[in-house]
Input
Amino acid sequence: MSEQAVVDNLEFARRGAVLRGELALAELGRLRETLLSSQGTLNYTLSGKTGAKGECLLECSIDGKLVLQCQRCLDALEYPLHVISTLKVVKGLTQFDDIGDEEEYVDSIPASAAMSVSALLEEEILLHLPISPLHAPGACRVQNGVKLVKEERTNPFGALAALKGKL
Ligand SMILES: [Zn+2]
Output
């Protein structure tokens, strides 16, 4: 099911609204470029909140599995995704200056009467992905910079041995 939800993000936060749903990976164009497989869905919860100082907050929680590409061996790497982030909805750009040091850990997004939920969540996922995903040491086909011969599909030494056998 495609998720085309659009919300007024300030209103959503003030009301303390909660939206739960699924995101189809195939429909997340920017994220899809980083994936080896675009099959499957992610579960999300978007919760509106009001902070201690009356600020409008959105809490995103996203869970699921992604298939990334290991940047060492180029094989598939299953990546469990758990994103939990809080975003502050800020009206107008001038207020960015007022965000104090104490709240540096909270990212800000502009107030919007028609914010695309899937675009927001996709952005959050992209921010949380490893820049260079790698298998754990020992689980990767490439060890110490050398590909393991037994996993090699075209083994040049094997070909040489076969050639020698014919001579
Ligand atoms: Zn690897």
